[in-house]
Design goal:
single chain, alpha+beta, Aminoglycoside 3'-phosphotransferase, Chain: A, domain 2, 2 domains, six-stranded antiparallel beta sheet, binds adenosine-5'-diphosphate, binds the ligand O=P(O)(O)O[C@H]1O[C@H](CO)[C@@H](O[C@H]2O[C@H](CO)[C@@H](O)[C@H](O)[C@H]2O)[C@H](O)[C@H]1O
Length: about 475
């Protein structure tokens, strides 16, 4: 196998197999972009990664699989006959290619020349492409700016996003699976329903894979919310303002977030209503709710192996999950599935919610399964708990002379204030009170999310493991 390609995948921030033993067991060229200039070929490869060991554990929502499992990753590559100095930072390697001869290979997403081919293909879908069938779809109602230059986003992402000028944003899905991509399906439905809470979908790219007789959704093109502010950043700024004025209450400080939290609650309720109208709403009977409780208990069992510090909270958590068994049944529908403040963008025209892919580590079938709306509500509420704790942990904004316990008091006040504003607005928009059954469900989803976070932090940000543990300690 191609060692350069394997090394490059291993280092990529979107590669989800880090920390496991794996190897590149195959690459398949599934499509070539038409109309490349002389000296350049641009192709999409599917790389098959095979794991040689099971994951070290199997905890809380992390479906890393077992030995022998494979994942497919999408690699758009630019093949140049001559080296490209301007693309040195995006170099994959240099080798003899069966079709293209001796080539200098670069990550195509960094290359403005290569990305222009994608944009043109969306604007005027080619009838066929060399190898495989790359099927470019465009929704009516938006003329793409074909002069726009591409810029690759640099954030920590599980996929790769490329902005085209100020006009459009293309998200290239990295780990791909045959079948419907929920991000595309949900954006399409919400765009066509006229929702004001998502970035409008402009188009998407399917691979009609003749070898396996399946369709794989490769990329999504949507409205670029260029001037939007990230909800997480806004929340942190609000907390810092509060900490800098330790004598004042959250509602007395400039930058109070409660109005935004309420608008977020309304936006989420509107999105849930649109999703309920356009995707199936199902009833889960008491037995199915028992299965939900059992799944949460199972995730806790697995999490205890990874985070032994969860042990003192296990009995209380089991009681919270067990109380689900007293419910007669619940309604489920299409939801976001992985909602937190980092998935929200504040624009001049209100809040937008992004990334409807669900938890990327979960298998596709699970991500498409209807779930309770309270999963999304719980996700946001956990974010309101995280924000002040993160500011405190990272030493943010404590006024000289202020006591840490005063700051902790303020932190709890900030979380409670925004949780209440969000929840009140959410239930008001749905036209219902938070009844006993909903409250029980919300508590269970909150507990399930904290358990998930303990594992997530242990694996990814051990310095932050105190955040979910402290939340559990205070709830005890
Ligand atoms: N339409 C958009 N306009 C501007 N920024 C966006 C848009 N959609 C997402 N983003 C930002 O791009 C980043 C990655 O988006 P996301 O959909 O969460 O990708 P991933 O699936 O890789 O996690 C986030 O910081 C998000 O705020
Ligand atoms: O954005 P992703 O879909 O990859 O979600 C994962 O990473 C999130 C962190 O970026 C993580 O969220 C947790 O930390 C957030 C602050 O960084 C906080 O706002 C969330 O409430 C908290 O759950 C998320 O759990 C994980 O799935």
């Amino acid at each position: 196998m191609n060692d350069a390609l394997q090394d490059w995948i291993a280092e990529a921030r979107w590669f989800g197999g880090k920390g496991r033993d794996w190897s590149l067991t195959g690459t398949r060229r599934v499509g070539e972009l038409p109309d490349a200039p002389e000296g350049l070929r641009v192709a999409i490869e599917l790389a098959e990664v095979t794991y040689s060991s099971p994951p070290s554990d199997d905890a809380a929502g992390d479906d890393a699989g077992s030995a022998g499992d494979t994942d497919l990753y999408q690699l758009p590559l630019a093949y140049y006959s001559e080296p490209q100095e301007r693309l040195e930072h995006a170099q994959v390697g240099e080798w003899d290619d069966e079709d293209f001869g001796h080539v200098h290979v670069y990550d195509a997403l960094h290359d403005k020349q290569a990305m222009a081919l994608w944009l043109r293909a969306f604007a005027a879908p080619p009838t066929s492409t060399a190898r495989g069938v790359l099927d470019f779809h465009s929704l009516p109602g938006h003329d793409l700016d074909l002069e726009a230059h591409s810029t690759l986003f640099s954030g920590e992402q599980s996929n790769s996003s490329v902005a085209f000028g100020e006009d459009a944003l293309m998200k290239v899905f990295r780990k791909v699976t045959p079948g419907v991509n929920p991000d595309i399906a949900i954006h399409q439905v919400l765009t066509e329903a006229g929702s004001t809470h998502v970035a409008a979908l402009y188009g998407w790219l399917d691979l009609v894979d003749e070898e396996t007789n399946t369709t794989i959704q490769l990329a999504m093109l949507q409205q670029f919310l260029r001037t939007a502010s990230d909800g997480w950043d806004l929340a942190l700024a609000s907390v810092r303002n509060l900490f800098a004025e330790a004598d004042l209450h959250a509602d007395e400080v400039g930058g109070d977030f409660a109005g935004e939290a309420a608008r977020l609650g309304t936006a989420l309720a509107e999105v849930h209503a649109d999703l309920a109208q356009h995707f199936p709403v199902e009833h889960r009977d008491a037995a199915a709710v028992g299965d939900l409780a059992a799944a949460m208990e199972g995730r806790l069992d697995a999490a205890l192996d990874v985070v032994p510090d969860l042990a003192p909270f296990a009995t209380g958590l089991r009681e919270t999950f067990g109380r689900l068994r007293e419910l007669d049944g619940i309604e489920v529908q299409q939801v976001h599935g992985d909602l937190h403040l980092g998935q929200t963008l504040r624009t001049a025209r209100g809040w937008k919610i992004v990334d409807f892919e669900g938890e990327p580590a979960k298998p596709l079938a699970e991500r498409l399964r209807p779930d309770s709306v309270w999963r999304d509500v719980a996700g946001m509420i956990r974010s309101f708990d995280y924000a002040p704790r993160v500011v405190a942990l990272t030493g943010g904004g404590l006024e000289p002379g202020a006591e840490a316990d005063q700051r902790d008091y303020r932190a709890a006040e900030w979380s409670a204030r925004n949780r209440a504003a969000f929840l009140d607005a959410y239930t008001a928009e749905r036209g219902e009170e938070l009844g006993a059954a909903a409250s029980r469900l919300l508590d269970a989803y909150l507990a399930d999310k904290v358990v998930y976070e303990a594992v997530y932090e242990a694996r990814n940000r051990p310095g932050w493991i105190s955040i979910p543990l402290a939340a559990l300690g205070e709830a005890k």
